[in-house]
Amino acid sequence: MSKLPVVTYQTRLRLTPEQSASLDVYAELYGRAQRTLFAKMRAGASINELKRSFLRRFGLTARQFNAIRVELEGKIASIRERRPELIEELQARIKRGQKAIIRLEKKAPGSNTLHQKKRRLAILQAKLAALSADQESGRVRLCFGSRRLFRKQFALEENGYASHADWKKDWQAERSSQFFVLGSKDETLGNQSCQAVAEPDGGLRLRLRLPNGLGEPSKHLVIEGVRFAYGQEAILQALSVGRVVTAQTKTGKLVRKREGSAVSYRFVRDRKGWRVFVSVEAQPVALATRRLAGAIGVDINPDHLALAETDRFGNLVGIRRIGLHLYGKSEEQAKAAIGDACRQIARACAESGKPLVIERLDLRKRRAELESVDPVRARSLSSFAYAKTISMLKAAAFRAGVEMIEVDPAYTSVIGAVNHARRHGIGSHQGAAYAIARRGLGLSERPSVREAVVPTRNGGHVTFALPARNRTKHVWSFWSDVRKGLKAAHAAHARSGGNRLPPAPLLPKARALGATRTLSAKPRHANRRQHCSADVVDDLPW
Q: What percent of the chain has pLDDT over 70?
């Protein structure tokens, strides 16, 4: 099985009213067949018997039924795989929420914040009970048309509906708004049911096989003039790699079969019309980096990406900060900002010839933090797409031929703050990125100081003595004790009011390395960091 990633490109189709109507009917039949198949599968019917009956009942071809089955099985498998993680995540959030309630009962009994925390805790416990019951019974809940739209029928006026009939019209349209055409590497042009052919003018001509149950006069729908702003060359390359080879069966018989690249299509209808998504296997890219040159580490934070570059000996070469102010932005705006940042990082790695090192983050722990932080921090954490950032970093690195190294995230922030921040005149996040890069190269993580001087957010610092190291244990055991001392030092610093003091000016040496400091004094809920570009913040006089 190939380990190459699958990339998807999309474009909007220019259709005649007749072509659009044909796709509408196809999507309605596809959605109805998929919902019926889900109900039959839950009842325990055999898939082979269902296939024979569905081919007759809905007028499908065998390949069209396989596309419905594969998509449905993928949805069911993803729910079953994700459910244990959701249960574990809810348990962690409930535990943090209970601790927060105990703390508020002592500090602010009878407050509105305490009341809202208790309401939130009850909601989480109800969700956990429902998921646990489904996990024990093996039941899969799947809502065709999205649960968000389904719940809108219970508040019609608030969601802009004049009547339940208006909502039902949108509901039925949403449940029949797309269909999937499954490809295979042993089929002509990578797909038996939808084939793309290059036209002389550089566009593509799609020939879509329609189900027999539609009653159309022609079995095929031809769509001409399809062009992709991005990925046109990759699609053409996937279409041209097909060839006929001779293979030998187990009985020794020689057979001829086609071998190429699978091309799958998904047609999706939105408010503007129909779009087509084409998924092809990415072509291998020659590696442009090597570990002997050093590494570039990335520390992912809710409002920025911190980068640190090292040479092959692990010495710090340079640091960089790429702002990611996603709070208040739409999903597409956030994806665009993350994509631009990831391309910058991949380009820097390719130009320097150094691999990229990131952490294997446990996103469940990140979500559990939402129950015990202040509202501003919670909004920042929830609006930042950790998974999207990691996936885009991997995609950008693959396209640029950059090696991606994933390391354990244990204690990188502590090591960066204690070992590297003051020593190199950089911030804690850049120090964490430096520790990540060194870990990717397999270098030492022993303590380099006896007394920790760790910078704080307002430009000050906290100081505490490091514990004695037991050399019979792993060095992470030492950093575990250091983390406890660091938390205690930060707590004492906050209680003394030191975190509210104005910051000291940055040293010229630190600014020469690229170190920056954000404005600490800002109006409550002003969200200045989210609505101020990184260049403006960096150029503030200190």
A: 88
